[in-house]
Write a structure and sequence with these properties.
ABC transporter transmembrane region fold; Rossmann fold; 19 helices; alpha/beta; 2 domains
Length: about 600
């Protein structure tokens, strides 16, 4: 694990303590009216349930003993208790189910909002698929806890407590005997509950592994099928699913043993007490109605305590899920605006400067991506950056957008250090076309509007025309409203890249970052898009990362990076004549094209 890795990356690091549920209470407490309604309905339902044994006592002692046929009156009391219990239970179910769904929605929104604040380094150290599992599997557990488990726990606590009080009122001696068995029941809860907690933790982690595996394989389905690895991936998934099942089987077995032990001991104690009660009825110490009410109430009390053993395991699972979600909620962004951000000057010029910058990626601390790197990009200049893989080219873009802060040195945009500015204001002055095009599972319109969300259709079509994307966009079934599919699956690679270029054109930012923006285009589209890009680049600062050197010949300046340093600088002709790294890269490419 990385030195500063969040516990969110390691589920084992999150303790399963019931105190973790305080996090969920903070969200639940926002809805005091629904909580009050649920508690009131719960108390009424519990009281009505306990009134049923009392009604049976009245029926037996007074109804059967009556000579005037007044037994119906006592059955009416019983029917009233049943009706009240049913209505109150329905209200309780509605309120707690509403709270469960509402709290889960709020937790998901809060976690997602906090995740959007975090720097890319967090997602290097914590797998996005694992985080997605927290937003699905763990929040589902929270919904169960808030919408069911806590309600069941409170109901059974009220029922158990009220039932014991009523039992004392009915027959103190018998109740005392019944309570002797409670310590015997508690011991299995404590002993077996710890084991259930540990197994529940492993069960959640195994489910998270399955979710991460599904996400990974489905996202790489073309590679899986291209290399004929379907059977191996199916076997790997089967192994993961079997591990989930085996862990769940152990948890279920242990909970079944715990439930059997508790209920067996409790009802065994009740049987012994009833035996003594029957003797007392024969002796005339208590009435038949009293013993009937005692039996019914004792059954309710035993059932309540038995249910609490199951609830305890669910609460532990909920505590584990709450703890892992709390880690995500508590995560603070490494990149944030200072308390008093310095505004960028207006009008924007697009000047970018690196001063003695040294930087290492958090997950690759042993290698310097940039080492004492200095570079000044003038306003309106077109700068091409070339070099072998791993030379630090993409790192320039990452730092310019302040996705990371350098370990040493400073980066300035229009004369203001990025650390002193608001990152949102910095990024508002930058348009970027990445090499790996990102297309969202949304409409073409929304994908374009990512460049400027308030843009109208006229501006969208102008940007599409400039990027040579209008023709294929008009040919889509619903035009700009056509759904693009997961990752832009309905588009070709060249179409996706042209859509990304149109998005950058719509941004109309003073600083343009192009990471081999024409690499996925055919020759004709590349020619058209290149001319559009030249018009776009004319009035703004542009930095081009080029893997194909034919795209950088027209740049005002070319820098050659190697191992995080500038090793050559000039234009195409001067660098070609020097016989250095640029000349070697150019020779390899052009000879390859000639061949």
């Amino acid at each position: 694990m990385a030195e500063n890795q969040s516990p969110a990356a390691d589920p084992e690091a999150v303790p399963r303590r019931l105190s973790n549920l305080v996090v969920i209470w903070r969200f639940t407490a926002r809805y005091k009216g629904h909580i009050a309604g649920a508690l009131l309905a719960l108390l009424i339902a519990a009281a009505a349930t306990l009134a049923i044994p009392y009604s049976f006592r009245l029926i037996i002692d007074k109804g059967f003993a009556a000579t005037g046929g007044d037994i119906g009156r006592w059955f009416q009391y019983l029917l009233l208790a049943v009706v009240v219990m049913a209505i109150a239970t329905a209200f309780r179910f509605y309120f707690v189910s509403w709270l469960g769904e509402r709290v889960v929605a709020d937790v998901r929104e809060a976690v997602q909002r906090n995740l959007l604040r975090l720097a890319p380094s967090f997602f290097e150290e914590n797998r996005p698929s694992e985080i997605a599992s927290r937003l699905t599997a763990d929040t589902t557990i929270i919904e169960q806890v808030v919408g069911t488990t806590i309600s069941v726990a409170l109901r059974n606590i009220v029922m158990g407590t009220g039932g014991i009080i009523y039992l004392f009122a009915l027959a103190p001696k018998l109740t005392g005997m019944l309570l002797v068995g409670i310590p015997v029941v508690i011991l299995p809860i404590v002993f077996l509950g710890r084991r259930v907690r540990n197994i529940s933790r492993h069960s959640q982690d195994r489910v998270a592994e399955v979710g991460a595996m599904v996400d990974e394989v489905l996202g790489a389905m073309k590679i899986v099928q291209a290399f004929g690895q379907e059977e191996r991936e199916a076997d790997r998934f089967r192994g993961a699913v079997e591990r989930v099942f085996e862990t769940a089987r152990r948890r279920i077995t242990l909970r079944a043993v715990m439930t059997a032990a508790v209920i067996g001991l409790m009802f065994g104690a009740i049987t012994m007490v009833m035996w003594q009660g029957a003797i007392d009825v024969q002796s005339g110490l208590i009435s038949g109605g009293t013993i009937a009410a005692f039996v019914l109430t004792g059954g309710l009390v035993a059932g309540a305590f038995g249910a609490l053993t199951e609830v305890y395991g669910d609460l532990l699972r909920g505590a584990g899920a709450a703890g892992r979600l709390a880690e995500l909620l508590a995560e603070e962004p490494e990149i944030r605006a200072p308390a008093d951000p310095r505004p960028l000057p207006a009008p924007a010029r697009g000047a970018l400067e690196f001063r003695d910058v040294t930087f290492r990626y958090p997950t690759r601390r042993e290698v310097s991506a940039l080492l004492e790197f200095s570079l000044a990009v003038r306003p309106g200049e077109t700068l091409a950056v070339v070099g072998p893989s791993g030379a630090g080219k993409s790192t320039l873009f990452q730092l310019a957008q302040r996705f990371y802060d350098p370990e040493a040195g400073a980066i300035l945009l229009d004369g203001v250090a990025l650390r002193d500015a608001d990152p949102a204001e910095v990024r508002a002055r930058i348009a970027v076309v990445p090499q790996e095009t990102i297309i969202f599972a949304a409409s073409a319109r929304d994908n374009l509007r990512y460049g400027r969300w308030d843009a109208g259709d006229e501006a969208l079509w102008r940007a599409a025309e400039a990027a040579n994307a209008a023709e294929f966009l008009r040919a889509l079934p619903q035009g700009l409203d056509t759904y693009m599919g997961e990752g832009g699956a309905r588009l070709s690679g060249g179409q996706r890249q042209r859509l990304a270029i149109a998005r950058a054109i719509l941004r109309d930012a003073p600083l343009l970052l192009l990471d081999e923006a024409t690499s996925a285009l055919d020759a004709e589209s590349e020619r058209l898009v290149q001319s559009s890009l030249e018009r776009l680049m004319a009035d703004r600062t542009t930095i081009v990362i080029a893997h194909r050197l034919a795209t950088v010949r027209a740049a005002d300046r070319i820098i050659v990076l190697d191992q995080g340093r500038i090793v050559e600088e000039g234009n195409h002709d001067s660098l070609s004549s020097q016989g250095g790294l640029y000349a070697r890269l150019a020779r390899l490419q052009f000879e390859g094209l000639a061949a």
